[in-house]
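thought: user wants a sequence for this fold. calling inverse folding tool.
action: design(structure=
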């Protein structure tokens, strides 16, 4: 990036960030997620680090927040309430330590870690032990005086406990107003009943509650105040001691805060809470790391908008912003053309992402995504990343619209669109890309589940002419593989053994492996349970398929068309002649026999596919839809509408931990 390009990018980022910061901090509204806004701010910070002479006083990296709302008295903080620099990786934490130790000229004497709660920052002032003032952080210099509302919160002491410390007449305490996830759910139900808009998250609810002009409304909402900082000098020597003093004074402090001796201890602490944070009653998006020694804190001081001795580590976000470098077309196993965004690499949900699906041309047009755009991408668990929003205000005018081609980019055949479908297809059923993707699907975990047979090896086998379709895999020998690059005698033997071990397969997996359009794991399971025999399935007429609950006319037509094609029949016979055996389905007598499970939300311990496999192994069934016939709904993080449907139908809802216990994990 040249200096002129950096200058232009900085200007656009400033405008966009300031817009969203004003919505978030002043109006308590959001157009994009916290993670996406953090990503924009982090990009701006990195560009400014590369071009320090482009940093200006009005940059969002140099200011704290927006102006206070009208309707409350303004309150000028005696000392600026600075914000905290963000970090998104262990490398950035290490860099922070090295910078600080260089400034100090000595090693840091340990750290203190505390969860970064998602609430509303608050400063309380006590005079001779009595609460006299409560103010929001505002822009760090001037906040809003909300004492009457804060007095309604039970966890805020009106009179401080008498303790051994020699306290000054005036004492300032900083902390966070927090609302639990359960309370958010309760209040949103009330909002719906009254025909009012719901709150997006606990932070918005806390802000809206504290900014009520009538304290009686505030009192109806169960909020908690967690203290985490003494802004007044009382003789504290460590940050751990600050928490002890606050506790002794009668404040609620986090039970999960810890002294951390070094970077190794920090890494362990972060890993624990990345896993456990969803079990907390309140939301948290990271950990605040503090230099534990107060004398070292004073020596480090502050720079710009932030204290040097504090750092906010953000947990891997499920959303981030990046730029679309190109849009390419992939041809899938059923011939579908899928536009894929090639991205400037970005860290999201714990991994670096460089590609994201755009699904189809209709989605490209709905998002109005163009080559060169800045976009928000999302990744949840093991789900493929996708683009969820464009940020058109960041455009330079050089962005290029995208349209799917009229001919297949692989074989040059005509591209067609079937009636009533959004997808475009390659018209050539023998397209090389289709054949390759079919083999990828055939060996995948949900189908034959070959161990050690990934796309690179499949490509190598196709390019060398050793296989033309998936059935050829079962006829490979060690001698075929050994001459290939990267194949020694042992690796060739291992692959042949792995292929041979998968010759026996269940009927649902076999059906799924065929790559029939519109037939995935759930439908394959449904068909196997209904017919129990491949021959019956292949000879079934369309009206019989349409009579099965869960099989619509589109799927029925796809099944009949697939089994009517001579090439598909030949492929199935080729598999059977190669020694593939379809296990005869026996009456399942597992502990989950005749039980139907639906999964919603992101699982942390298992992938969705693994969880479904456990259900099936124990005789149960899985479904994508919630109905009266559903026995269990397993709810992960950020569940969708299925969770609400389950509640309406009074179905049994399980957490991931409860599900794991049920299946014996």
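)
observation: tool returned 665 residues.
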């Amino acid at each position: 990036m040249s200096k002129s390009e950096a200058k232009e990018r900085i200007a656009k980022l400033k405008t966009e960030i300031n817009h969203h910061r004003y919505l978030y901090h002043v109006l308590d509204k959001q157009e994009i997620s916290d993670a996406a806004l953090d990503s924009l701010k982090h990009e701006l910070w990195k560009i400014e680090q590369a071009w320090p002479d482009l940093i200006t006083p009005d940059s969002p990296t140099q200011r704290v927040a927006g102006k206070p709302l009208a309707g409350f008295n303004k309150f000028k903080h005696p000392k600026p309430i600075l914000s905290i620099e963000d970090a998104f990786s262990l490398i950035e934490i290490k860099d922070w330590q090295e910078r600080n130790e260089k400034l100090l000229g000595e090693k840091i004497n340990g750290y203190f870690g505390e969860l970064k709660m998602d609430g509303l920052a608050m400063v309380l002032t006590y005079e001779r032990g009595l609460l006299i003032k409560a103010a929001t952080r505002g822009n760090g210099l001037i906040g809003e005086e909300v004492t009457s509302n804060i007095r309604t919160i039970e966890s805020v002491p009106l009179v401080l406990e008498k303790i051994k410390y020699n306290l000054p007449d005036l004492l300032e305490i900083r902390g966070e107003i927090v609302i639990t996830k359960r309370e958010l759910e309760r209040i949103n139900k009330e909002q719906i009943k009254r025909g009012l808009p719901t709150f997006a998250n606990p932070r918005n609810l806390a802000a809206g509650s504290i900014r009520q002009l009538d304290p009686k409304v505030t009192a109806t909402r169960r909020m908690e105040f967690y203290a985490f900082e003494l802004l007044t000098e009382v003789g504290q020597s460590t940050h751990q001691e600050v928490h002890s003093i606050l506790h002794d004074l009668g404040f609620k402090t986090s039970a999960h805060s810890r002294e951390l001796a070094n970077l190794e201890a920090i890494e362990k602490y972060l890993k624990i809470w990345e896993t456990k944070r969803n079990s907390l009653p309140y939301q948290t998006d990271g950990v605040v790391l503090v230099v534990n020694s107060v004398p070292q804190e004073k020596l480090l001081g502050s720079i710009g908008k932030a204290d040097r001795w504090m750092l906010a580590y953000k947990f891997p976000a499920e959303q981030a912003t990046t730029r679309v470098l190109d849009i390419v077309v992939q041809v899938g196993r059923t011939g579908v053309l899928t536009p894929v965004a090639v991205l400037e690499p970005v860290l999201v949900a714990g991994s670096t992402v460089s590609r994201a699906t755009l699904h189809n041309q209709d989605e490209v047009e709905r998002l109005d995504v163009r080559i060169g755009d800045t976009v928000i991408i999302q990744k949840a668990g093991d789900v493929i990343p996708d683009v969820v929003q464009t940020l058109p205000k960041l455009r330079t005018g050089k962005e290029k619209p995208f349209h799917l081609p009229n001919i297949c980019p692989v074989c040059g055949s005509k591209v067609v669109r079937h009636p009533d479908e959004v997808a475009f297809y390659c018209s050539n059923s023998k397209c090389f890309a289709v054949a390759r993707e079919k083999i990828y699907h055939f060996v995948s975990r949900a189908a034959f589940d070959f161990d050690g047979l990934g796309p690179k090896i499949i490509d190598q086998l196709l390019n060398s002419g050793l296989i033309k379709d998936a059935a050829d895999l079962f006829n490979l020998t060690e001698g075929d593989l050994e001459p290939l690059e990267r194949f020694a005698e042992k690796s060739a033997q291992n692959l042949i053994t792995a292929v041979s071990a998968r010759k026996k397969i269940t009927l649902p997996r076999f059906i799924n492996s065929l790559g029939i359009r519109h037939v995935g794991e759930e439908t394959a399971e449904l068909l196997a349970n209904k017919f129990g025999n491949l021959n019956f399935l292949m000879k079934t007429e369309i009206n019989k398929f349409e009579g099965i609950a869960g099989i619509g006319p589109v799927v029925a037509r796809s099944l009949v068309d697939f089994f009517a094609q001579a090439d598909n029949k030949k492929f199935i016979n080729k598999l059977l002649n190669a020694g593939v055996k379809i296990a005869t389905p026996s009456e399942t007598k597992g502990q989950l026999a005749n039980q139907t499970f639906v999964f919603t939300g992101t699982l942390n311990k298992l992938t969705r596919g693994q969880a479904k496999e456990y259900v099936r192994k124990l005789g149960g069934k899985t479904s994508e839809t919630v109905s009266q016939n559903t026995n269990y709904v397993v709810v992960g993080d950020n569940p969708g509408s299925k969770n609400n449907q389950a509640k309406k139908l009074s179905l049994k809802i399980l957490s991931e931990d409860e599900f794991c216990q049920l299946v014996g994990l």
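thought: summarizing for user.
answer: Here is the designed sequence. The chain has five domains: 3-54, 82-314, 319-417, 432-563, 596-662.
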